[in-house]
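Exercise 3.2. Students should predict the tertiary structure of the chain below and write it as structure tokens, then compare their answer with the key that follows.

Predict this chain's 3D structure.
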Amino acid sequence: MKTRQLAVASLMTCALLLLPRVALAHAHLVSSSPAANATVHGPDVAIDLKFNSRVETKGSTITLVLPGGLTQPLALDSHSNNVNLDTHAHLKPGSYTLRWQALSTDGHITRGEIPFTVR
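Answer key:
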């Protein structure tokens, strides 16, 4: 009887290991424009954040930290898509930081900051 239970358990384990797995990945930033520590020309600055997996635009945000330390939320452009969060800003010369939050389709939130300078 024990041999049969062991055989069934072994077969079930093998079957579970062979089943395709659903890839649940957190959204990690792959590239950004402006890039971290970049100097860009203003006043009109396009902002594009590209991720390694799908992100939900509802629940994802981009906030701009102004040179004086105040923050300004930025509205996502309508052409933001599955893996990109896009926006734009009219900026004076100075040092800025983008704070982003991305909600991935697996429900996890990732966050980061991108400092840059406008000339």
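Discussion points: Confidence is low (pLDDT under 50) at residues 19-23. Residues 10 and 102 are 41 Å apart (CA to CA).
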